[in-house]
Structures are given as structure tokens and as C-alpha cells.
């Protein structure tokens, strides 16, 4: 095909290629899910339908990229997909990887919505959308620490949110009072408040809430202690 005189503008395009031989993490995160969850009246602090929807979507993404993905991990409105260090997916182009993962995730989220939210249709003025980034990690130790970081974050957030919302919804505290009550408390103190003041043993909370969700490269959805299993998760990589 003949080139037009405008063709030169293509020279302005730049393609960031992710470093070779590094693990690639694609992390997607729901945009303004604070508002989104309020609009669709998600249960606080954990909505099982919303979490299961995220997991089903992530599973489909993992299955689609099964030759590239080692494992995926998710909590709340985010999911991380960890890719093999020697993947040549889209010639390791950052923009291709980040945008294709997030657009597949978003379209799956919309497509599967009605399976999980059976009595609430998506409103076209309140559609879900996600951001996405690629981060490269130079060795296995760092990528294991990445996954451990997200796991610990799940625990910290979930413990706080569980006690906070129990104090508000069950004990009748205002959100400000609950915030003050928890200010400066350590993890075991929060568990004690939850037990003594709300009658709830944190250990009995659902595993999905406490541990987040791992999607294996075979597409299995499990809720495991990521820190204990970290070597097993990356065995062979
Ligand atoms: N009630 C409820 N809210 C949830 C649930 N999962 C996620 N959320 C909401 O989603 C938010 C996710 O946190 P962020 O990603 O930091 O907040 P965000 O509003 O999405 O902000 P940006 O990501 O910066 O756009 C939480 O703070 C909650 O408000 C859920 O299961 N139940
Ligand atoms: Mg978000």
C-alpha cells in the first residue's frame, strides 16, 4: 500500500518494552469503587457477590492467558496477575499488556455481572471501569514479597473493616466513633474488640474475606495462607 505524506506521524509513537527476564505483575484496580459499591449497595465490608464476580472474571482472564500466567491474587476491587519471567506476550510491550488485561477484565466483569447480581441490572450511567499497571520484578524473592505484600494488606484491611463495620452496624457507633475506637489499636486488640464488643470471633470469618483469593494457572479458585504456601505457589518458576 502506498504511503501517504502523513505516515511520518507514526514515528512519534513509542513502545515501552518491559525488561527481559523479569517477572511481570499486571495489577488492575476498580476505579472509584467506593462510589460504585455504594451505588449498587454492596454489603459492608464484604459483598460475597462482588467478590465472587471478581474471582470469576479473574479466572477467565487467567484461562485466556494460561500459558503466560503463574498465579493471580485478588481482594476487594483489585487483582494481580503474575506472569512468567520469560513470557514474550505482545513482545513484552507495556501498553499492550496493561490495556489488554484490563479491557478483558472489564468486559468480563460486565458480561458476568448478572450471574452474581441477579436482581440488580448494571446502570449505563454507573458502569465499572478499572485502571491497570505493569510492574517488573527482577527475581523470584521480590515477586514472592510482592504477593506476600498484597496478602498482608488483605488481612490488615479486612480486620480493620470487619471491626469497624461491626461497631457501626451492630453496636450502633457512628463512623467517627468507630474510627476513634480503633485508632492506634494493634491487630490483637482489634480482634479482642470484635470478640468482646460484637461477639464475633475473627477466626470464624469466611476464608475468602480473611485471605483474599488465589487463582491458580489451572483456573482453580482457592483461599490459602499465601505466606505459608509462598514457595509452593512459585515452585518451578
Ligand atoms: N461495601 C463494599 N465495598 C467494597 C467492597 N469491595 C470493594 N469495595 C469498595 O471499594 C473500595 C476499594 O478501595 P480503593 O481502590 O482504594 O478505592 P476506590 O474508590 O476504588 O478509588 P480508586 O481506586 O483510587 O479509584 C473500598 O474502599 C470500598 O469502598 C465490598 O465487598 N463491599
Ligand atoms: Mg479502586
Helix content: 40-55%
Written as H for each helix and E for each strand, in order along the chain, the element string is EHHEEHEHHHHEEH
Count of DSSP H/I helices: 8
Tell me the Rg in angstroms.
21 Å
First-residue to last-residue Cα separation: 45 Å
Binding site for Mg(2+) 2: 29, 77
EC number: 2.7.7.79
Family: Belongs to the tRNA(His) guanylyltransferase family.
Cofactor: Mg(2+)
Q: Which labels suit this protein?
A:
237 residues, alpha+beta, Alpha-Beta Plaits, binds guanosine-5'-triphosphate, tRNA(His) guanylyltransferase, tRNAHis_GuaTrfase_cat, GTP-binding, tRNAHis_GuaTrfase_Thg1_sf
Describe this entry's structure for a reader.
This is tRNA(His) guanylyltransferase. It holds the Pfam family Thg1. Adds a GMP to the 5'-end of tRNA(His) after transcription and RNase P cleavage. With 237 residues, this protein is of the alpha+beta class. It has a domain at 16-153 and 207-233: Alpha-Beta Plaits (2-Layer Sandwich). Helix content is 46%, strand content 15%. It contains 8 helices and 6 strands. The protein has a 6-stranded antiparallel β-sheet with strand order 4-1-3-2-5-6, sandwiched between helices. The longest helix has 30 residues, at 140-169. The radius of gyration is 21 Å and the shape is globular. The protein starts with 22 loop residues before the first strand and ends with a helix. It binds guanosine-5'-triphosphate and magnesium ion. Guanosine-5'-triphosphate binds next to strand 1, helix 1 and helix 2.
